[in-house]
Structure to design on (1916 residues):
């Protein structure tokens, strides 16, 4: 397995085309605007080497028998699901979002879906994928997941769009591979990964056939260009967390990109576009739950420390206690859905384990809806200082710095500087660009609430509950 | 194990003093106002004998090695906790509330707490209790749990009350046993059980010593009188569920009741009053979660059937779909907390397993708070017919019955009678006295939201989250 | 104006066909099951004669210049709207729901809509209606409003239903009048009113023409039969409020009922069915707001008294204070929407004033959604006693009554009997059949939340807000 | 009245000491980091000169009889209150927050409170204040309001703090005036106003006497230094609103600042510190309601346009329609509380009109709590593009710009650029630093939810509701 340094080193050997703020990036690992993103992924390499996290970060590959980073592991039992959940919480409570679990979720989704496609169409996607999987595990790579298409007019299907390239599509099938054109619109962490794994973004009809495509491609393959946002707030003094750890999202443009067949996992079998989307979503929603529970941990800790720094004991002051208990309630109730989803996970015909989908969707739905309530509570318990504290530079102005320190003290035995750092952390994660990002990504990343509600209804055994009521009332309703 | 008939028979051999609506009950098993309660408990005997429920309803006693009803079982591993949770859901989705899980929760709480008391004070409560436990298991009994004291002025402790008997207390310790006086104010199912298990209702101080008491006593012991509410709505035509299944609560008056030492499990060790209360609450809150999930199942099923009967397909009509998915979200998210509480349950020094308390409390808190939202959704999806449908008797009036049947039809292929029955079931469980009872009991039974929030704060590892934030910000805050 | 006694007397001169619980009612004013409903309407006659309520209860008819009960008044300015709002709060805070405001809302709706129909079709509905209005005002009558049709399959329009009579319809137009067949499914207060005012329940298409009908008919006209629910809980001891005041709803069957033209206000002009429905809804939603604010007043008062009786001062105990303040927040925020709706009310071409519809709909929506939160708070602040207190009959049992009184005391200086009465009132209005009725009627009476959301969207000036944003961003979006 | 240009010009004649980001500001009107704040206040001068806003922006001074900007007007009737409310909505829907209403609220609060102090203590504060008021009106000035003290340990009163200067205090009373030391921690708009009006931040006890102080002082008085945050996001391309309009908050340090008696409005009369705080809060909470309704207008408009640009018609797509109607519900329901507060406003003994406090507090509470729900809805309806759209600079990169424009189009007839601008506006106001600021300031600006709940309980006529219930139940509870 790679060390964090080797991961960064390996990025230097790649040469992706990345634009940020109108400029072409010379070297991704040297670009300050991307550094927080690289740091966040580095942590996934770092923790895997630490003995205290071995149980949670390391798994034994069921294809090679070697130890691999759990983020590249195919879940082979329910305990793997539970550990994946715990791992994402562990990684994200330090980084805000460790991003690399996307690789895990895509690998598992392709693993189980290619098996189904081969079963149905006698294709060989699954075998090809096993080779790719082994490569990724052996090289200890990170792949970004390119799923979200541009989508154009949301009320139309891919083939109905005026512009045919608004969903990424196969423009040509060749003997050696396929040629792709179009765009993937929101790809987390893209610039500082090794590989792009492409997945379809929705269920398709026969007319959408050319859009039913999945494959993997190196980040610097010919014809690929990215337009990226910065990761975190590297230029903002006072960004307590996100000057160090952050997440970039990029648009990836595909300009007639060639992908050889051995890296293609779906190419026209439109019947399975939805299955693959859904398989990924199910794995990924469990990851989102763990990730946001990590953010919840930060909010719980910071709100408690802030209340203390203000002189209000969270265990004793009634309204503070109630609010902190609400933060815990929100965080642990969506996390509990992740636990139930793991515990009731199911083996697929391919032999891997997939989270129970109803609980995965409910947990994801809850974290998306309640992140706003959690921010509200963090703000309510902390006070206006969150967005009004002096900038770090002001605390250095000789003529005022002593008075600022005096006046910004809350509880007598806690230095003003501590109080400010907690306030700035809370501002950083709830009331800055990054705070906005966390909330939007909580609600839309991994699927919108509307998508989750649909999925809940599709997967829940409503008939069983209807039968129960029919039994109680002695009726037999026509379905 | 007893058959349902043997359970009813056994009640005939007891002779408790019970008043309902101002009258003394001659024979509990023959009292129509209590019949729905007896039926609900009968089901726990019935299901235990059915092969399809064996795995969930039957356990092997760790003290006798015999098969026992799981409701009388001491949990010996995490799987027992999970099965207990599933069992309560199973029993309550048919009866509304099966009540007998209270016996289970009290047995487990006394089991683990007497062990702690003996360890601390070299007493012999635990051994005594084991005998009692064996008796209860062998006879396949049902015990009600008498916990809630009258409490008087809620801003005062037991010993501070003007009237010394507002919390049940030991008025005399004799060589053979103790003498009790006072009242337990809200005892579910009391009239139709075999035994009363008494538990303290809160933590005590040294001054409250005489109130720190726990014991078991037969329901018809000398000096015990009960004033009971009716169980369900046995006299209401149209009570689709609760004319058959219901729950009574009773006040139990203790008028210098003698209890021999072998049935006493706490008598003055005030240091453990809170522990015992809390141990019971932890087990019981898990039961409440399962129970209310069963009610949730009914609401989900009935709301779906009602929408269909109205001609609105719950999978296709957007606003109905959204609401049913909300019902599922509420039900399964608090149930997931029960699952997490079971999965993370812990072994006590006594060797039994206790639910993880934070998740148990969050799950209980959620079901209490959201029962109201669930009723709202059931009402919103179903329409005004819930409280305006003609009475069953009206459907028999010759001059109008045909027209009523014509006009009360919704979807063409569903008989009006089916639609009415579902409407009446929903009225019964959400908009009748019993519906009110479910909501109040959801919020207060097993502890109020305030109590649960306190417990969440006491049990959550807040320090760990504070350390996390101290690490992120590089500060070290004084505690 | 009539005295309450004259109102009851006048009911005796009518002879409607009413069934309750399978029996034909001999005399409505003598039927115990309807008495609480009669009492509630009596109060509207009573208060109109009291000098302290003159300003709010009495208005000067703009057609006759005589003083009339405001409940029969056509609003001629904004102040009339505000006073109507205040009047409904006043009447409903004592009775739970005074019902007779429905008459007011229907009169106003027909007043303004007939004027529009005549303008469009050169008909004479408005003039006819003025005569009817004068008659109602002079005789000081009460009319029930029959609006809600049976509706059958909710996904189909009236003319699409398999059974043509699922919406009330004109089966024949004769020279002297029209003949009606079908049913109105939920008519509040019907048995104990003088007149039935029929309104269409929705917008219609040309094919639904025969269903576009509005008229007034005496309650005992030939061919009319009613199947009624009881009003309140007249037979329940312990029904603190609703043994005295209640509301019945009835299904009204129309079996080829003849109505002369002078009492017909719409007969086939389908273009105005929606307008009339909507006009009524707008007036009525304002009434619902006032009515539920009255229920809110009871809940606020009773929850505060209950907390006190429990020994918890609502001003000092943090979590109680927070909850009572939430009750106030809910009640007064939807009431404020009623105030805004009144203050921004608009004059119609007919010259009367109609509430501003967006605020009326938002207020109605809020009261329907939040009634459940309000019940939750009432339960949370009061405790389990709400559904577990001994029945009044038990408090009379000689052998236990003294102990019950001792044990049911909370704060030392408040008699147990007071505490019980407040608990029973809260049970009565939140946790009994009547409590269920209040919640369902709050959400569905006067239109469902879904209907209100549609209306909000139709009436809100969304374009104005879009223009604002176009101005800010400098774009001009194509509509 | 000043033109916007004259307002900016007038700032040049002042010379305040202001630090931002560690640097001393040379000239406030030339400082780019403050420009958006200046622009927002300029708009209040601009609109006052426009004929279309005359009715709402201009009032006739009751002291001079001259026309004045309504923001400097003393409310002399209820209509003034309603117009003030409408004015804040108008100004803030364009600027996000126009800030200058703070001047209005402070002037009104001091007006009515000095009258009470003089009445009680025979002082002359009111007369002095009238002179100051005339000066402010005649010069058409803007004053910032310095209220929030540093507060130190929140569980202690001013005089109990270890450091005596954590609340601003009078260190010396001299013949000509008073000398002040300490800090005001959060002062909105401070650097670009003419005057500082100081108010106490809470009720005081006799021991806190020296902290009971109110006065006005020019912004560049000797001994005053400010540490300010930037206003808006002037340096961020893509800040659609806040590169132009924004708000700065500053800490103001008072280093033995002398204030002559004619500008002192409270100096030691601790009995009135709370009254003055509360009087300001009442006026100001009404302003907050209007201000946030303006933000609501932007959110409603932008969310609707965004949905359209995505190809989803807000009137037709069910879940979008529901969400937009929720945005309207939140915005207009708190605004309705502002309307009710105005309509039920009361005349003070000084002759001005003050908003009805219960409605003002409920409205303010609602906008603070629901701003988070509103952001959630804006995010939910708009999609991930809010935080992932390419930067404006990227849209200029020659090699990719055409493809970006193609791919970022939603509905075919709406240019990508329009869609991006709306997305960026929503990011700007909900998911950037400024979005965080809006949410925190909504919840804490003008008082925390906790403070508002306390005030609601203090001002609500709870006794009246208790009497109602006593009447219904026939009890008479001891208070």
């Amino acid at each position: 397995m790679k060390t964090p340094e080797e991961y960064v080193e390996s990025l230097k050997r790649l040469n992706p085309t990345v634009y940020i703020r109108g400029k072409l990036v010379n070297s991704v690992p040297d670009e300050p605007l991307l550094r927080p993103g690289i740091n966040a992924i580095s942590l996934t390499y770092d923790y895997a080497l630490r003995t205290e996290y071995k149980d949670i970060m390391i798994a034994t590959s069921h294809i090679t028998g070697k130890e691999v980073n759990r983020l590249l592991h195919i879940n082979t039992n329910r305990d793997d699901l539970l550990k994946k959940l715990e791992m994402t919480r562990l990684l994200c409570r330090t980084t805000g979002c460790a991003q690399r679990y996307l690789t895990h979720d895509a690998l598992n989704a392709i693993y189980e879906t290619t098996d189904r496609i081969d079963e149905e169409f006698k294709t060989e996607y699954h075998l090809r994928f096993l080779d790719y999987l082994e490569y990724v595990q052996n090289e200890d790579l990170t792949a970004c997941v390119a799923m979200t298409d541009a989508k154009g007019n949301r009320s139309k299907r891919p083939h109905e769009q005026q512009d045919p390239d608004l969903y990424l599509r196969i423009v040509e099938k060749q003997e050696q591979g396929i040629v792709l054109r179009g765009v993937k619109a929101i790809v987390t962490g893209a610039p500082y990964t090794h590989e792009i794994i492409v997945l379809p973004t929705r269920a398709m009809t026969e007319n959408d056939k050319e859009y039913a495509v999945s494959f993997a491609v190196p980040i610097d393959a010919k014809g690929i260009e990215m337009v990226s946002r910065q990761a975190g707030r590297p230029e903002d003094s006072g960004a307590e967390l996100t000057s160090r750890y952050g997440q970039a999202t990029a648009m990836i443009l595909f300009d007639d990109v060639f992908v050889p067949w051995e890296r293609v996992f779906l190419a026209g079998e439109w019947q399975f576009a939805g299955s693959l989307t859904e398989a990924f979503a199910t794995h990924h929603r469990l990851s989102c739950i763990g990730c946001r529970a990590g953010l919840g941990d930060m909010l719980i800790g910071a709100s408690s420390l802030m209340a203390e720094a203000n002189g209000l004991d969270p265990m004793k002051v009634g309204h503070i206690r109630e609010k902190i208990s609400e933060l815990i309630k929100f965080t642990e109730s969506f996390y509990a859905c992740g636990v139930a989803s793991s515990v009731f996970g199911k083996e697929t015909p391919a032999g891997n384990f997939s989270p129970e989908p109803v609980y995965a969707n409910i947990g994801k739905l809850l974290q998306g809806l309640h992140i706003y309530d959690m921010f509200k509570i963090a703000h309510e318990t902390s006070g206006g200082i969150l967005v009004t504290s002096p900038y770090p530079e002001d605390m250095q102005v000789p003529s005022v710095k002593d008075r600022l320190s005096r006046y910004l003290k809350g509880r007598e035995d806690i230095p003003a500087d501590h109080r400010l750092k907690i306030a700035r952390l809370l501002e950083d994660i709830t009331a800055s660009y990054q705070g906005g990002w966390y909330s939007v990504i909580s609600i839309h990343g991994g699927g919108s609430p509307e998508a989750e509600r649909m999925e809940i209804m599709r997967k829940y055994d409503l008939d069983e509950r209807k039968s129960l009521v029919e039994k109680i009332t002695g009726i037999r309703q026509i379905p």
Summary: Chain A touches chain D through 81 residues (CB under 8 Å). The longest strand of chain A covers residues 177-188.
